[in-house]
Each structure stands twice: as structure tokens, then as C-alpha cells.
Amino acid sequence: MKNVLITGASGDIGSEIAKNFASLGYRLLLVYNHNFEKINDLSTELSAITETAIFKCDLSKEEDAKNLIDEIIKKFKRIDVLVNSAGVSLIKQIQDTKMEDYDFIFNNNVKSTINTIKFVVPYMISEKYGKIINISSMWGKVGASMESLYSASKGAINSLTLSLAKELGPSNINVNAVCPGLIKSKMNANIEKEAIDEIIASTPLNRIGSCKDVANLVEFLSSDKADFITGQIISVDGGFSL
Questions:
Q1: Are 56 and 86 in contact (CB under 8 A)?
Q2: Active-site position among 26, 32, 102, 150
Q3: CATH code: domain of residue 83
Q4: What's the CA gap between 238 and 226, in Å, rounded?
Q5: Kindly report the CA angle at 88 between 55 and 149, in degrees rounded to 5?
Q6: Rounded Cα distance, 137 and 172, in Å
């Protein structure tokens, strides 16, 4: 049985990714920070399909991240697939942002991803195998008005992905990023209908995406069918970022 570690598993996208991996028979190692009720419900649902374990951790804290990975390896021996899905957003004009906003965005979106990868990679290297999939955003590629900090954090994730693909490729570790477009999820629930309609009008497929659209690509990138794919920043945005 392969093990998949999913951060941000209590979120809508993370939950859908977990469901896909459960259907494939992976052991699920689900990490959350705040939403225990959501992760507990998900674990209860998926434990009927496959072995599931949940872990609470603030991955932006280096020591906490290290302790989590050490605990997982001690109990489950290996991590075959790592999906970094934890993240937050912020809508603000740049002149209204404060250092606390910067810390909030970069701690959750960048530091947590770096910390998790940092402590998982040594075990993947020892196995000469691993798939790392970072959930980024189309705004990390094209930028979003009123979301400069969020866009910058996702741009950082894209650059991190490119660098790590080169660094870890010789150890047979694939590193890719998935860039969702506007997805129907709670994170985007506060976007005004007028803004959503504007994005849809600029999307060749003329619709917003679903969490399943993202999960399907993650599933492919984690499979043997994607063994020769690494260092790719792949959009799931209906063509918006063309």
C-alpha cells in the first residue's frame, strides 16, 4: 500500500484529492490545522474505503513540521506522494496591506510548503522514489488585481517547483505544480458574482472549475503514467491563463 501525505486536507480541494487517492487504495495521511470537524468527517467517510490517519499541525513552524514527518515515518515507514494543498487567500489593495498580511499569506502558502518538503525529501531520497505535487494558482502565473500578496506567494511556489525538479530529479523524485483557475470552493465563496462572471467571460471553456478537475490532475501526476513529467507548472483553468 502506497502512502500519500496531503496537507490542507480539510479544504475543499484537499478533501477531493483525498477522495481520489482513497478510491485508488492509498493509505491517507491527512494534515489539517484548524478545521477538525471537517477533517474528522472526511476521515470517517474515507476510513470505510482505506486506512486513514489525521494529524494536526501548523506546518509554518519548522520544528512542528519536523516532528510531524518524523512521527509519520516512524509509524508508516514511508511517504510515496506528497500533495501540498494547504493555503489561504487575501483580497486587498497593496497600499492597504500590512506586514501581518504578508506573514499570514507567506507563512501559510510558502513556509508551510517548504517546511513539509524539507523534511519529507530525505526519506524520498533514501527510497529513490517520490512524487511531490504543489497546489499553486493561475494567479501565480498571470497575477490578480487586489491579490498581490497571494499572487506573489503562488509565484514563489511555482519557482520552488522548478528548482526542486532539477535538484531532486537525479533521486527519481518528480516535482510538479498544479495551478487551478477559479474553482467552486469555500475559498472563493466571497467573490462577487460580477467578478465571477467577468472571469468566466475571459475563460475559453466559459465556466469555472470544480475541485474534481484539480484532483484528477493530481491523481495523474502521482501515477506511473507521469513518471517522465517533472518541473511542470500545469494550469487547470479552462484556458484563462492562455
A1: no
A2: 150
A3: 3.40.50.720
A4: 21
A5: 140
A6: 25
Phi/psi for 227 (5° steps) reads -60, -25
Give domain status of residue 41, yes or no.
Answer: yes
The DSSP annotation for 48-104 comes to TTS-EEEEE--TTSHHHHHHHHHHHHHHH---SEEEE-------B-GGG--HHHHHH
Angle at 216 between CA 6 and CA 219, to 5 degrees: 50
- Strand spans (E) along the chain: 3-7, 27-32, 52-56, 81-84, 130-135, 173-180, 233-236
32 within some domain: yes
Q: Is 32 a catalytic residue?
A: no
Cα separations (Å) of 23 from 26, 28, 48, 75, 82? 8, 11, 11, 22, 17
Q: What is the pLDDT of residues 7-46, one digit of tens each?
A: 999 999 999 999 999 999 999 999 999 889 999 999 999 9
Q: At what angle do helices 148-168 and 99-106 cross, to 10 degrees?
A: 40
Whole-prediction pTM value? 0.95
Residue 83 covered by a domain: yes
pLDDT per residue over 99-134, tens digit each?
A: 999 999 999 999 999 999 999 999 999 999 999 999
Indicate the DSSP class of residue 222: T
The domain of 13 spans: 3-236
